[in-house]
Amino acid sequence: MSLSNPSGNANTEDDELTLPRASINKMIKELVPSVRIANEARELILNCCTEFIHLLSSEANEICNQLHKKTINAKHVLMALEKLGFSDYQAEAEAVLKDCKAVAAKRRRQSTRLENLGIPEEELLRQQQELFAKARQEQAFAEQQQWEQIQAAAAAQQVGSVLPLDDDTDDYS
């Protein structure tokens, strides 16, 4: 797939499929800080990088489909590098993958709420047990009050049924 823009329009689909120029410029500056690069050369590097990514991802997609998988994973990309004749880059790609996995694992560990609290697990367990005990006491107290209310209502009902009815017929005289 060619990323050239024959129509000359600035806002085409091909422009959306390129890498950010600022990122490419930053990488160039980091890799060769003392060398000046012409804008035309920067554009060529950008197009080559984008084309390489498209080629590699297309090949990885084909490998993924051949293996009857729905998701391209790192193994498919490494296989695509080899199939396209870029096996020299496999060792470096595997090292980058290992670093990415380590960073992701570290991020997951740091994002756990317990570790972010800075409170030892034993202390958290003690606090949890305290809260459970307090909740049990409050529940027992609420149940006791409810029981006492039921008893009082039952006693009042019995007292009302035991009292003789006021059979005063004087009101009809």
Written account of the structure:
There is one protein chain. The protein has 173 residues and is mainly α. It has seven helices and no strands. The radius of gyration is 38 Å and the shape is elongated. The termini are far apart.
In summary, what is this structure?
The protein is 70% helix and 0% strand. The chain is built from seven helices and no strands.
Strand content is: under 5%
Instruction: Label the structural class.
Output: mainly alpha
- Total strand segments: 0
Instruction: Report the uncertain regions.
Output: 1-11
Shape label = elongated
Give the proportion of residues in helices: 55-70%
What Rg do the Cα atoms give? 38 Å
Spatial separation of the terminal alpha carbons: 113 Å
Q: How many DSSP helices?
A: 7
Q: Give the SSE order as H and E letters.
A: HHHHHHH
What about the largest sheet?
A: none
Give the key terms.
173 residues
List the helices and strands and how they pair.
Blueprint: H1 13-16, H2 21-31, H3 39-66, H4 74-83, H5 90-110, H6 113-117, H7 121-162
